[in-house]
Design a protein that fits this description.
CATH superfamily: P-loop containing nucleotide triphosphate hydrolases
Mean pLDDT: 95
Strand content: 15-25%
Number of strands: 7
Order of helices and strands: EHEHHEEHHEHEHHEH
Radius of gyration: 17 Å
CATH topology: Rossmann fold
Low-confidence stretches: none
CATH architecture: 3-Layer(aba) Sandwich
Number of domains: 1
Helix content: 40-55%
Structural class: alpha/beta
Strand order of the largest sheet: 3-4-2-5-1-6-7
CATH class: Alpha Beta
Bound molecules: cytidine-5'-diphosphate
Length: 213
C-alpha cells in the first residue's frame, strides 16, 4: 500500500493574529512539521536589503529572486529558507525588514517562487503551515483551513509587547489589497477571532476540529 498523502493544516490571518503561536503549539501537539511562510518572505526582504537593491522596485526584486541561492532546510521540527547555508533568524524580525517585506511579497514572480517551495514542504511530512495565502493559493484543497483574527487594538498591543515598533495597519492594507494572492477569507475556512482567548484555548479548538474530521 502506498503512503497516505501528508495532512496539511493551513492557517492564514493578518499580522499578530496569533498564527505563529498557535501553529507552533498545534504542530508540537500533533507531531507535525511547522512552516512559517512569513519568515520566507522576510528572508527574501532581508536578502534584498543586504544586496542594496531598491526593495520597492518589482523588477529589481524579481531579478534578485531569480538568482537567489536559497534552500529549504529542516531544523528540528520546522522548515526555513537558508541563504548560502545561513538562516537570518534575528535579522528577519527587525523593524527594517518588517517595513519592506510586504513590498517584496507583492511581486508575482516572488509569489510563484515561494509557492513552488512551500508546496514542496510536504516532502517533510504532515504540516502546519501559516501565512497569508495558504488556504487560498498554496493548499486550497486541504480540508483543514483556518483564518485567525483579533481586533486591531489587540493585534497592535501584541506587537508592541514584542518590543517591535511597527504600524501594522499599513502592512495589513498592502497584504489585503495586492493583486497577487491577497490575504482573504476563503469560503470554507473556519474563522477564529481569538481576541479574548489564550493560545491554549485557540489551539485546542483547532486540534479538535482537525481531529473531528
Ligand atoms: O509576523 P507577522 O504576522 O507580522 O507577519 P509574517 O507572517 O512574518 O509575514 C510577513 C509578511 O510577509 C506579511 O506582511 C506579508 O506581506 C508577507 N507574507 C505573504 O505575503 N504571504 C504569506 N504566505 C506569508 C507572509
Amino acid at each position: 500500500m502506498s503512503d497516505p498523502e501528508p495532512i496539511v493544516i493551513a492557517i492564514d490571518g493578518p499580522s499578530a493574529s496569533g498564527k505563529s503561536t498557535n501553529s507552533k503549539i498545534i504542530a508540537a501537539r500533533l507531531g507535525y512539521v511547522y512552516v512559517d511562510t512569513g519568515a520566507m518572505y522576510r528572508t527574501l526582504a532581508w536578502h534584498a536589503q543586504q544586496s542594496g537593491i531598491e526593495v520597492t522596485n518589482a523588477e529589481s526584486v524579481e531579478a534578485l529572486c531569480r538568482d537567489w541561492p536559497a534552500e529549504l532546510v529542516r531544523r528540528g521540527d520546522s522548515i526555513w529558507l537558508e541563504v548560502d547555508g545561513y538562516f537570518p533568524e534575528q535579522e528577519i524580525r527587525s523593524a527594517e525588514v518588517s517595513a519592506v517585506v510586504s513590498h517584496v511579497a507583492q511581486v508575482p514572480f516572488v509569489r510563484e517562487w515561494m509557492k513552488e517551495r512551500q508546496r514542496s514542504c510536504v516532502q517533510f511530512g504532515n504540516l502546519v503551515m501559516e501565512g497569508r495565502d495558504i488556504t487560498s493559493n498554496i493548499f486550497p484543497d486541504t480540508p483543514h483551513k483556518f483564518y485567525l483574527d483579533a481586533s486591531a487594538e489587540v493585534r497592535q498591543a501584541r506587537r508592541d509587547a514584542d518590543g517591535v515598533e511597527e504600524n501594522l495597519a499599513a502592512r495589513d492594507q498592502r497584504d489585503s489589497t495586492r493583486r497577487a494572492a491577497p490575504l482573504k477569507v476563503v469560503e470554507d475556512a473556519t474563522v477564529i477571532n481569538n481576541s479574548g482567548e489564550s493560545p491554549e484555548e485557540t489551539s485546542a479548538r483547532i486540534i479538535a476540529m482537525v481531529q473531528g474530521g
